[in-house]
């Protein structure tokens, strides 16, 4: 039987578990429980402990609603929930490093800023750590109202992530990780968090590299939008006049009930009720504007999307089925100018989605994918590349076998491939040698980037940097290859419709 590994950090001694060639230290507190007066407040330093703390199980998940789709895809798991959720987990190879400290990769889970937990089966990075010979950290952060309602201290969910990154800076060497070589990576809301962190002055220096998987880069709220949503939330909680003290007195069950009511009404400007707020303090300005000015010039970056992001919602009854004739009106709120101008621009854009192979719902899914994810991601890549030469873009093209392939290369499909957990969700990710080979290639590229700042490696071949002239993009599939400016005409049309210029 493998002896349980022990480490000593500044807070005290930890005993983890070793199996399958990986050491795991789970449920490590990186902040004090955010309860009572610390609800809606910045994360406070964790309390040290005496004796030996067992680190063999995940900490509680944040307070959230459990939905069947997330359970089916392995993004959530039946797991205890608590406001006392600020814990992280460290995964490292169960072998001495061949040379010095190992690179560190810190994963931020998704969940529309309203759900998620590092305990989700698909977020198991054991294979990534073991085969990549790196240290991987996963973590919980406050979600929903408790993390992203615009009251109290701004963006406490982002502040939780920063606190975890400070823990990594201060303590990861005890686990064999290099605090000077940290790559933060994440998907969906986790990736959107990274976009926000790139523009957050307080996060500067906490990571050297970033991998942004399927973010909505412009999915942030203005201060005015956030204030309106606070009012909606308080009304849902039963008292439109609730102040900060009143919100802190609500039971967690009342918070969750109001949160669910707020999420039900349907389409909003950014498709989510909770999101980071451009508050003028922690997040001083819109990230796309800050990145264009060079605020993240010191961070090497990979950014990309899946080919058919929104087709995931074939699995959801909550997503609207929009007939072709109604799609322009549905897209218009995301376009500038008077409504008539926006609808006319949306009608012009729909010429890119007229193929006979597309059902009406897929036309809508494709348009929303481009509007919210692909086009803003390409814009961010172009902006960053003007300040940082180590900027790379990809598109994930592997098709899910679920629903006879109707999902395509949908949102969240890349997660098990990046983390090495395809065998945890074979019905969604696919099984067999091809799926495993795609995962090996993606993980090899991610690890190469974490080590060197370039994702080029034997598994994917040459991967040229992204720049506004060539826009070289890696297509990740059974055969990985780079192409020049994929969907360039469509990207330019969206930029024109949004009055954004070429980038």
Number of domains: 1
Distance between the termini: 57 Å
Compute the number of helices.
16
By CATH reckoning, the class would read Alpha Beta
Sheet with the most strands? 11 strands, mixed
Total beta strands = 16
Strand order of the largest sheet: 3-4-6-8-7-9-10-13-14-15-16
Please characterize this protein's 3D structure.
The chain has helices spanning 68-72, 126-132, 144-148, 156-171, 189-198, 223-236, 244-249, 252-263, 287-292, 327-331, 339-349, 360-385, 414-419, 426-429, 433-452, 488-497, and strands spanning 6-9, 12-15, 17-19, 22-29, 52-54, 87-93, 102-108, 135-139, 177-187, 209-213, 221-222, 277-278, 300-306, 391-396, 472-476, 481-484. Helix content is 32%, strand content 17%. The strands form three sheets. The chain has an eleven-stranded mixed β-sheet with strand order 3-4-6-8-7-9-10-13-14-15-16, sandwiched between helices. Strands 1-2-5 form a three-stranded mixed β-sheet, with no helix packed on it. It has 503 residues and is an alpha/beta fold. It has a single domain (6-497), classed as Rossmann fold, CATH 3.40.50.1820. The chain contains 16 helices and 16 strands. The longest helix is centred in the C-terminal third of the chain and has 26 residues, at 360-385. Helix 11 runs antiparallel to helix 16 (488-497).
Topology record:
Layout: E1 6-9, E2 12-15, E3 17-19, E4 22-29, E5 52-54, H1 68-72, E6 87-93, E7 102-108, H2 126-132, E8 135-139, H3 144-148, H4 156-171, E9 177-187, H5 189-198, E10 209-213, E11 221-222, H6 223-236, H7 244-249, H8 252-263, E12 277-278, H9 287-292, E13 300-306, H10 327-331, H11 339-349, H12 360-385, E14 391-396, H13 414-419, H14 426-429, H15 433-452, E15 472-476, E16 481-484, H16 488-497
Parallel strand pairs: 2-5, 7-8, 7-9, 9-10, 10-13, 11-12, 13-14, 14-15
Antiparallel strand pairs: 1-2, 3-4, 4-6, 6-8, 15-16
């Amino acid at each position: 039987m493998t002896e349980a590994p022990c480490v000593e950090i500044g807070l005290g001694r930890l005993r983890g578990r070793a199996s399958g060639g990986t050491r795991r230290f789970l449920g490590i507190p990186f902040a004090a429980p955010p309860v009572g007066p610390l609800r809606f407040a910045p994360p406070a330093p964790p309390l040290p402990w005496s004796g030996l703390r067992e680190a063999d199980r995940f900490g509680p998940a944040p307070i959230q609603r459990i939905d069947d789709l997330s359970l089916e895809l392995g993004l959530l798991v039946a797991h205890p929930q608590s406001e006392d959720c600020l814990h992280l987990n460290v995964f490292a190879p169960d072998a001495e490093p061949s040379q010095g400290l190992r690179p560190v990769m810190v994963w931020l889970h998704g969940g529309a800023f309203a759900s998620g937990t590092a305990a989700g089966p698909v977020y198991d990075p054991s294979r990534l750590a073991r085969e990549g010979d790196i240290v991987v950290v996963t973590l919980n952060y406050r979600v929903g109202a408790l993390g992203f309602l615009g009251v109290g201290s701004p963006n406490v969910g982002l502040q939780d992530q920063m606190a975890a990154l400070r823990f990594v800076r201060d303590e990861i060497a005890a686990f064999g990780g290099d605090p000077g070589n940290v790559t933060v990576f994440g998907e969906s809301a986790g990736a959107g968090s990274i976009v926000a962190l790139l523009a957050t002055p307080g996060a500067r220096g906490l990571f050297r590299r970033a991998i942004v998987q399927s973010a909505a880069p412009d999915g942030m709220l203005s201060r005015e939008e956030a204030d309106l949503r606070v009012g909606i939330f308080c009304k849902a909680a039963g008292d439109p006049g609730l102040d900060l003290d009143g919100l802190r007195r609500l039971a967690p069950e009342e918070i969750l009930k109001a949160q669910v009511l707020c999420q039900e009404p349907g389409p909003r400007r950014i498709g989510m009720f909770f999101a980071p707020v451009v508050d003028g303090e922690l997040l001083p300005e819109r990230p796309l504007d800050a990145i264009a000015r060079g605020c993240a010039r010191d961070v090497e970056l990979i950014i990309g999307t899946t080919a058919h992001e929104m087709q995931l919602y074939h699995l959801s009854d909550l997503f609207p089925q929009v007939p072709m004739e109604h799609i322009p009106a549905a897209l218009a709120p995301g376009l500038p100018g008077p409504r008539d101008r926006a609808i006319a621009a949306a009608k012009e854009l729909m010429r890119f989605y007229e193929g006979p192979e597309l059902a009406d719902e897929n036309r809508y899914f494709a348009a929303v994918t481009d509007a919210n994810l692909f086009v803003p991601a390409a814009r961010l890549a172009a902006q960053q590349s003007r300040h940082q030469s180590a900027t790379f873009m990809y598109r994930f093209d592997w098709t899910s076998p679920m629903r006879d392939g109707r999902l395509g290369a949908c949102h969240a499909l890349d997660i098990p491939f990046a983390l090495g957990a395809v065998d945890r969700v074979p019905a969604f990710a696919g099984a067999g040698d091809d799926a495993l080979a795609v995962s090996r290639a993606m993980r090899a590229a991610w690890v190469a980037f974490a080590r060197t700042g370039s994702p080029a490696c034997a598994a994917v071949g040459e991967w040229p940097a992204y720049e506004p002239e060539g826009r070289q993009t890696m297509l990740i599939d059974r055969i990985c290859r780079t192409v020049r400016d994929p969907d360039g005409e469509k990207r330019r049309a969206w930029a024109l419709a949004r009055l954004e210029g070429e980038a």
